[in-house]
Amino acid sequence: MTDSSTELKFAPEALSLAPQTFMQQVKETSTFVIFGASGDLTHRKLIPALYNLACAKMLPESFHVVGFAVTPMDDERFREEMRKAVQQSKEATDFRESVWNEFAQGLHYITADFEAPEGYENLKSLLKEIKKEHNVPDNRLYYLAIPPSFCRLVVEKLGAHDLVTPTARQGEGWTRIIVEKPFGRDLDSAQELNTHIHKVFQEEQIYRIDHYLGKETVQNLMAFRFANSIIEPIWNFRYVDHIQITAAETLGVEHRGIYYEEAGCLRDMFQNHLLQLLAIIGMDPPVRYGGMSVRDRKADVLRAIVPINPESLAEMAVRGQYGAGVFEGVSVPGYREEVGVHPKSNVETFVALKLFIDNWRWSEVPFYLRSGKRMHTKVTEIVIQFKRVPHMFFQLSQDDVMEPNQMIIRIAPDEGISLRFGAKVPGPSMRLRPVQMNFSYAETFNVQPTTAYETLLLDAMEGDATLFNRNDAVELAWEVLEPMLEIWSATRPFHPFPNYAAGTWGPNAADLLMQKDGRSWRNPPNAPLLSRVNLENGNSL
């Protein structure tokens, strides 16, 4: 759908604030231990996020970071590697030598294999040394920046070497653990992993991270809904026609071909990111803003998702895989030509779903979700499309365009919210045209939103689990996707892969998924509505 509406911006003087940070410094210090500290996540996300917090004076005093990985390094080499990571990071603030030097004094490194007991004994000794030398509480925040296959091993070793303080033993410091996605690869493995971690950590000590939930706009969804009396009364089946959630990426799988062959788009994006966004959009008001209450309401939404009937799967779900194409004037390879990908792979790089929530608020309102690699535009957004007015009594000409009201919540790249509504065109006659009212975080508050990892790491240090996944929510999400995982793993695609070209909006079947309901995806202006492509194998889809 192209958008021909006129844009109206909020007046800067109405909401503009002086540059500032709205976060508060963590009250109690801790030692942050990163397992897999030599890996990509630590370089690209974790250390730049911690450095940003140091620049904003959000980190507590005597804060220490311990890297734990098999790559041979000493403290000085680790500090130099992390310095380069911050200087090269697109997410880190401008490099400040004085801030870095102070921050780097708290960086330590342990070279050890995850199986070797010596590494954990060295870690225990270092934690005791930090506690004694700096006179700080024995608080530990472990971050598993490691492949899922190592999670059980590390958790088991932490327990065996007495590196976990039970929550019941007050006064001895706290222990928390952050676990990265993917959390299992299906329902059975997720339940098994939960059981295994619970042998060492109690549920309130476990922080299952989903960086989408740390994005400023995602957090603002609850404030937007529940702090504004003009919004919540229309957030239901009486006024909402349907909801779209899109997470489109322009990049291919890049160097993650081996991982993607095991995961696919459904596991990589839907089980965590998109279903979590759906839960926040669909949840009822919590009793209070806090970890237990908010996560209870999100779990209610996941429980209410109508199970997918395997017999009607083709009417509710579309899968696709990108072929070769052109993006920004450059030829790019298809998925099957990427490094680490099988030349006849049937792994999906695109998924579109139609889901329903069987409860009072959302009866009969479809939720359309889509995500894919190598798409036309990088965008993550939520579209709330409202029902048309019951009777349009204006005598409109053919030139008049009246489209349904839409609320667009932009999660990336330009975080903000916009509202489309109808207005009269200036002049003597009654002519109507859509206009767009736009709110941008960067323009309105005159600050760049914090990165998701900054927010989530601070929350974990403070013991606030509101934006982290609970064990039941993880398992409920797998329950929703289990029928598709089983059928798609056992059958070949109805339309042979690849079925969409790089640089388009996915397979034609995804457009038809909505068109048969009399609806269409919201695509950025000048984007092709249908992505019919002729690929090398002769398929026209």
Write a compact overview of the structure shown:
Helices cover 33% and strands 19% of the residues. By secondary structure, it is of the alpha/beta class. Helix 2 (40-55) crosses helix 3 and helix 9 (257-282) packs across helix 10 (291-304).
Key attributes of the depicted protein:
single chain; 541 residues; alpha/beta; nine-stranded mixed β-sheet; six-stranded parallel β-sheet; 15 helices; 33% helix; 19% strand; globular; disordered C terminus
Describe the protein in words.
The protein is α/β, with parallel strands linked by helices and 541 residues long. The protein is 33% helix and 19% strand. The protein has 15 helices and 19 strands. It has helices at 12-15, 40-55, 75-88, 97-104, 117-134, 151-160, 187-198, 216-226, 257-282, 291-304, 313-316, 441-445, 452-462, 471-490, 508-515; strands at 6-9, 31-35, 64-69, 107-111, 140-144, 175-179, 206-208, 240-248, 317-320, 322-323, 325-327, 330-332, 350-356, 366-372, 379-386, 406-412, 416-424, 432-440, 500-501. The chain has a 9-stranded mixed β-sheet with strand order 1-18-17-16-15-8-14-13-9, with helices on both faces. The protein has a 6-stranded parallel β-sheet with strand order 4-3-2-5-6-7, sandwiched between helices. Helix 2 (40-55) crosses helix 3 (75-88), helix 9 packs across helix 14 and helix 10 packs parallel to helix 14. The longest helix is centred in the middle third of the chain and has 26 residues, at 257-282. The radius of gyration is 25 Å and the shape is globular. The two termini are 19 Å apart.
